[in-house]
Each structure stands twice: as C-alpha cells, then as structure tokens.
Amino acid sequence: MPLAVRGVSWVVLYLVVVAGPLVFALVDGPAGRDFWTDFSVALGFVGLSMMGMQFVLVARFQPVAAPFGDDAVIQFHRQMSYVATAFILVHPAILFIRDSELLALLNLPEAPWRARFGVSSVILLLVVMVTSMWRRRLQLSYERWQLLHGVASTGAVVLALLHMLLVDYYLNSLWKQMLWALMALAFVGLLVWVRLVRPLARRRRPWEVAAVTAQRGDVSIVALRPIGHNGLRFEPGQFAWLFLNRSPFAVTAHPFSLSGSAERDGEVEVSIKALGDFTSTVHAIQSGSRAYVDGPHGVFSPDRNEGPGFVLIGGGIGITPLLSMVRTLADRGDCRPCLLLYANQRLEDAAFADELDQLAERMTLEVVHVVQDPPEGWSGETGRIDDDLLRKRLPERFQRWQYFICGPPAMLDALEDALTRVGVPAERIHTERYSFVD
Fold it and tell me: What is the CA radius of gyration of the chain?
C-alpha cells in the first residue's frame, strides 16, 4: 500500500477512535439534560479518547510513523496534548458555570469517589503539561521527566476512566459499557505491549559496548557490538532508543542517531555530545557494559527520498545522521553530488571535521563550515546559514535535490523558511529534530 494511502488511513482511524465514544455516548442518550451539559460531557469524552490515543502516538509503532516521519508524529502528539487538555478543562468549567453548587465537588475529603477520580485525573494531567512545557525551568533531568511523564499520564487516563464509569449517566446501556470496556482493555493491552512484550524482545537481543572514543566538540563515539545475534539493519539517517547499563524494562531510554555506515554489518555506532544529565556521563562508560537497542526508527533517510543530489545541513551534534548518510554513500560508491553545510559556534566544535575531509576524497562531497565565532584569519563562511548564504552555495538546478536538515528546533524552523524563500520545494525538505521535549 502506498505511503500516502496508509497515511490517510491512519488519520481516518484516529478520527474514528477519537470521535467514536462521543457518538456512542449520545446515541440513545438519557433525556432531561440541557445543551450545555451535553456539550461539556462531549468535550470530556473526546478529551479522554485523545488522551488514550496519545499513548499510541509515542509507542514507537513503525507502521504508524512511516507515512509521516517520527518528527511529524511527535509534533502532532505535542499539539494534540494541548487540545485534549483544553477539552478536559472546559468540561468541568462549563458544569461549574451552569451550577455553582457543583463547586462543592472540589472538596475532595467529602466529595464522592467519582469527583475524586475526576479532579485527581485533571491534576495529574496538569502535572504532565507543566513539566513538559517547562522541564528545563523546573530543572528536571530528562530521565526524571520521562519517568514522571509516563506515570502521571497513565494515572490521568486510568482515573479519568474510573470517573466516567462511576458517573455512569451516559453509559445507560450494556453495549455502551462493553464498548468502553473494550477501549479500556485496548489501553491496557498497549501498556502490556510497550512495557512487557517489547522489553522481553529486547532482552533476547543484548548488546555490549565495544569501545568509547573521544571526538572533538565534547562528543563520545560509542560502538556497540551484538551478543548472540546479527545486530540490526538500518537506513542512513535513522535513529534508535538506547538503554545503556540499564534493564531492557527500564522506563527511561534515550534516542540517538545511528552515525555509522548502513553498509557495515555487526557493530553499530552512536555519537553523543555531552549536553548534561546522562550524556555527560557517556565518556566514562566502560567497554563490555551491557546495552539494549530499540530500533531502527525514522524516515529521515536518502534511501526513502531519492534525488540527483543531496544538500545536508547540520548544526552541532545534528551532524550525526548526516555523517551516517555520507559514510553510507561513500561505502556504496555513490557518485551523486552532496553539499554539506555544517554550522558550529567555533571551528574546534566541529566534530568529525577531519573525517569529512577524508570522505570528500572518496565521493562527490563539498563540505562548507559555517562558524559563528571564527578563528583569526578565517576566510570561510561566518554567522548563520541564511538566505544569502544559501543562494551563494546552492548548486544549479538545486530545486531537484533532496534536503536533509538536523539540529536544534529553532535552527530547523529558520532553515525551513529560508529554503522555501529561495525556491526549494517544501516536499524536498526533510528535518530531524533531536529534541523530544523542551
């Protein structure tokens, strides 16, 4: 099935699942309720359905992400979290405005259990939103945020289901109750799949750290060797979730681009920059340490986006998936031209600069360093990659080439706009954000 058709099918399925409970609740619904009460309940049902679907969006199902790309799925997950939260908050707000006596339900010690579950669910949902939007301001490490996010999100959905079942006003028939029971079972099944079935599969395919090598720019190259299996096959530009010195059942994992060549069997390689938290400890990991790999993931690859040439734009550690691309093309003997625009604060921060020069001798590769703080005597490009630099450096007939950009979100947003302004078709621009949370 073509990717476009699969994408439309997933969108339709999402809409059916989100809106379905609303239809089932209101069909043959109870009489005697006014419009605003029914409207508030409708918002609650849709919000709850959307909360459940949030787990599907981040469950790393490759068939779901393939038509859109992981970047798009993650961004959709973020945006829909705002919408679902708004629906759920408006649901009780309307009821309180309509009948101020219902405010007494906020007195949890004296409130019935249906109100306790509902209020507790909203509190957990707000915890999820606040800690996700302002993680750095709250000085939450990525690992603590990931654990809190998973536990609080699961608790919010479970408590919301209990609230709905105890209210019971719109579940006035057996078939509606069975329908919601099936949805609850599907949610439980998803948790079992993510937290039990897949970790068991990872446990049967262990890896170990073969070596950790220092690279310029505070980057550590971690080579992983498969134990008792053939490793994994991946496309250049893809990424994997890495469990280092952790159980395969651990809640926290870290996404890293696979920076090695896709043409080499056996060991895989990830390149990790020390940015704080876990990444600052990678350089001290000992050879022989146990690891588990969940992947590959992603559609950010020239193998899926063919063209007569490639423009690769990387910022900082965003070079890693692009490095995989050029390493792979070189190993394949691919003669198609590549232009690499590599932005860094300082020239000494440019990881793999020497290897990129060597790769340029094996393939048709032009490497252009763009430095914000150039060294004395620097005659290359300075500042940021903007419209003028693109017009200066892009090749003839650049509209036909494929563009791959990886770096901080702000850089990617600016470059998407800049490339569009200089005439690059939007469908040829592919991005990979290496920040999954603010």
Answer: 25
